[in-house]
Each structure stands twice: as structure tokens, then as C-alpha cells.
Amino acid sequence: xxxxxxxxxxxxxxxxxxxxxxxxxxxxxxxxxxxxxxxxxxxxxxxxxxxxxxxxxxxxxxxxxxxxxxxxxxxxxxxxxxxxxxxxxxxxxxxxxxxxxxxxxxxxxxxxxxxxxxxxxxxxxxxxxxxxxxxxxxxxxxxxxxxxxxxxxxxxxxxxxxxxxxxxxxxxxxxxxxxxxxxxxxxxxxxxxxxxxxxxxxxxxxxxxxxxxxxxxxxxxxxxxxxxxxxxxxxxxxxxxxxxxxxxxxxxxxxxxxxxxxxxxxxxxxxxxxxxxxxxxxxxxxxxxxxxxxxxxxxxxxxxxxxxxxxxxxxxxxxxxxxxxxxxxxxxxxxxxxxxxxxxxxxxxxxxxxxxxxxxxxxxxxxxxxxxxxxxxxxxxxxxxxxxxxxxxxxxxxxxxxxxxxxxxxxxxxxxxxxxxxxxxxxxxxxxxxxxxxxxxxxxxxxxxxxxxxxxxxxxxxxxxxxxxxxxxxxxxxxxxxxxxxxxxxxxxxxxxxxxxxxxxxxxxxxxxxxxxxxxxxxxxxxxxxxxxxxxxxxxxxxxxxxxxxxxxxxxxxxxxxxxxxxxxxxxxxxxxxxxxxxxxxxxxxxxxxxxxxxxxxxxxxxxxxxxxxxxxxxxxxxxxxxxxxxxxxxxxxxxxxxxxxxxxxx
Length: 651
Fold this sequence. Notes:
four-stranded antiparallel β-sheet; 15 helices
């Protein structure tokens, strides 16, 4: 963000406010809008305070923490100091925002302080706020603004879609004024005795479309912070103690990551309707269940927090495609694991395909990987038994619709109206040749083949040990062996001693040197000799920036340090690479990767961002932020735990 904003998060609800606590609804050069967002709608688009008719000065801006607290004063000068001080504090709940305005008189005589708060709710879908500036037809919409005792109610209706935002205040405003823009202004004339103080308490309650639970907003910012602490304590109680590694940066990053994951969880339902909490992908753009992200997050935490996997697997089983469906050119096929689940207006009216979107080639094999890893790690076979039908359906998708039986590989085609790329590097130009040209036709991404190989072997193990089906196990093991042989023949680029990023529709290798090769180490797809060569190559200076392994090696025409997937550094990508290096016995290299990533975490107070720019640590002694990164991301929060597993706790 170019303008500094503070983000408050509680599950799928978040608020982004400015340094003085305001929400303007205006996008300034950054990529993230401000506002209060609940279930994929902006329930507060303006929240602007004035004191005595003017925007106050910020003496102490909002700082880090679970509440947004700042100190404001009306405009003044040396000869006429401010008449009052306003201590503003905001907190967030699962259904809204709460604010305290404590107004303190600075005068020795009675004083009248006039507060004004301009408020509005535009109910904009986040997809309308993305930087591609797309517009969507929204016919028949009706907006309402109704003054009520103690505040105002904003409403938005489009056909059966109906959302409301209720704003109440204590004490009630003296008036609710129209502004000529659709916004409303709440005004108070506060009479203060000499050096006395008073408080105005405000509550914003979102009533989103489709919400079945009774909205609950905390009574105060302190209670909001306490609710978040309770979520953290609940998750920490389910987590085994992280061993003392003797590495403070790792201990700090694990603690920070666990705290972030606790408040990033969103509600989901299991196959029998049971309520679950699963990791959302990230804030601000992905406060939702994304299959790949939730699976990798759960895998990273599995040795310490198996309860996360025990929630993620049933939630994804419940949203698994059961029949072939077409939505806006996007195909859902039986057995496929969902990529993204959205609740917004545009998804509801099928104007974007993401209500239940299945545009991921790798979520399905990762589902099977996690199911076996959970069974192996915990010794609990009940989940594998319960989800046997879904697991077999997922494998059937891989073999049939996914392409293993037809192409010999997992294959994807660009979705019309959806994603051009369906592996983890899913931006439009991410899968390319070294010169940046993009493939045509069906794409065979390298990393997804590694996941498929691991899924085949792991599902075979489940078939043999849990489902008592040796014939099925033998079939899957044969397919896995064939895939491994075929991959090393088709993908290995002898001139580079490195695997191709992908194959194009004609089976030609895409020769970009990319970090996806590290995922092949994690899945064990490469022979030992090839794996060691690849692992050491990833630590060469063109790949390793000092903060981590770049998504694309520098020096190639396609490389750009500020590209989302063609030169940036992703913590979760590096976590998989570190796990893969350790699997192939490259423990020194795994520790080098861990040191780089944890140095980046230390620069962020223990928190890892979604992605960093690819600039070298030699020329940039502090990590350079990627300008459009999620400020909190579940895979990055979980990455330190994967690093802990990779290095075994040792320096």
C-alpha cells in the first residue's frame, strides 16, 4: 500500500483504516482499498471524523496491534493550543466494527466540542475494487439510508440479494444529516466541564446476505481484542509445544505465525454439516477458503497442529465437485477439489466464477497428500475411512478428467473467465519460456506432477493399510512409477541440468529456470542424482536472493524482481524448497534457505508477507516489499513451522 493503512482481522471480516482511523473509500496509489469488509462485501466505505468542523491532526498514528488506536487534536497553533484531545480506538468482531471516541477537554473553562462522523456503506464486491478496474452490470439495485434512534441503517437490494449495515451510537447523535452524496453525517455537540472528558461509543453491525448466525459485535475495542486473544489461546491449546531451537528468529516467526493463523480462520461446513474453522488464504484479497492454500497451510502445521488438517480435509470434502457443471465457461468435474469459495454478490449472480470455483490442477492431489500425511502423523485412521469415497473420487478425477490416463500427466487448460494458469503460479504470464513467451494449448506444469506422484503413492498406502484394497494400491503404484519415468524423460533439460517449468500443448519444454523444481524435491519425484544437482542449483546467486529462492532465476529475459511469479520471493515456496532439500540430504542448503527467510521475517517483526520483491540482499540490506502483497497470508504464517521441520530445529 502506498498510503499506510492498519488492518484489523477477525476471520473473514477485516477493516483497513488510515493512520488517523478514517475510511475514505478512495483508492490512492496502492492496490488495497480501505473499508470494512464482511463476506465479500464492503459494509463500510466511509468513516471520516471531523472535530469542530475540520479534519483533526494526528498526534499519534495508528500502530500495530489488535486495535487501531490513535490520538487526534483539532487544528491549533502555538498561540492557540488545541481545545481538546480525542483518543480514538477501533476493534473488530466477526460481524462488524466497534469504536470509542474519548474526548478530553484541554481548557479550564466549559467547552463545547462538535464532532461529526461521515458514514456510508457502498456494499461493493471486492472484485470491483481490484486493480484491473473491471465493471459489472448491476441492474435493479436499490439503496436505502434510514435514520434510526441512535444512528442510521444502510441497505442494499438486488433481486433476492439483500445486505444491511447498521450504525448505532451511545450517546445518540444530536442529528443525522444528509450530505448530498448518499453518505450521512452523525453530529454531536458535546458539553465538557473544565478538563473533563466524555466518550462516544459507536458500533457497526454488518448484516450480510446469506448470513445465518445472529450478528454479534463486541461491546468495546478492549473486548474485541480479548475475543482475538481467546481465538489464539484456543489454537495454541491444540498445538504441541514448539521446541526451543536456540534460534530466536525461528521461535519468534513460529509464534507470530500461529497468532496470525488463529485469527485468519473462517467458518466452513463439513460433509455432515458440522461447523469447522479453516485457514483463509489472506487479507485483503482472499479472506476465503482456497483449497491449495488451506492444504499447504495444514501440511506445514501438521507435526504441531493436526487439528487444522482435521478441519481442512472435511471442509474440502464437503465442497468437492460431484458432477460435471459449467459456469461462465469454467468446468467443475466429479472428484475435483475446490480452488476457491466466495460469498459475494458477483459470485451469487454468476458474474464471476468464484462462488465455487474449481480452477486448480493441484488442489486435488494435495488433498490426497494431506489425507495420508495426517493419517501417518497422527495414527488416526478414522478420517481416512470417513473420507474414503471422496478420496477415491479425487483419484478418479486425477486419472480421468485430470489427464493422467490420457496425457500421462495432470493437465490444465486456461479457463474462459477464470484463471489462465491453474498451478500455484496462477498469474497470466507466470508459466513461460525463458524469453517470456507463453505456451499455447493444454499445459503440463512441473510442480503439479510432483504432487500427483506423491498423491498416487500415498493413496496406494491408504488403500493397502486402511481400505484393505491391495489391487487398487498396485494400480496406483504402477501409475506412479510410470509418471516418474516419463517425467524425467520429458522434463529434464540436459543442457541446463534442470527440469523444465512446464510442457506446452505440443509437449515441448518451457525452458524457464524456476523455483518449482524445489517442489519436485518435496514430492520426491526426481531421482537422487538429479535431485541433488537441482537442490544445489537453487542456491546459486541467480536463484537465491539472500532472502530466499526467487520464483524465476535472475538473468533470464522473463525475470523481473517485481513480478508476482517471475522473480519474486515467496515464503511458502521457500518452505517447500527447504523441506525438499532436507528430503534429499541437502541439510546445509536447507539451513541457508531458512536463514534467508527468517531474516526477512525478523525485518517484519516476525511476520512474513505473502511475497517479497526479488532484489538481492547484497544490494538491498532490508527486504524490499512486493507492492500488492497480502498483508497477512496463511501459507506464509505457517511457513516457519515447515522450516522448523526442514532443519530439525538446528542452526
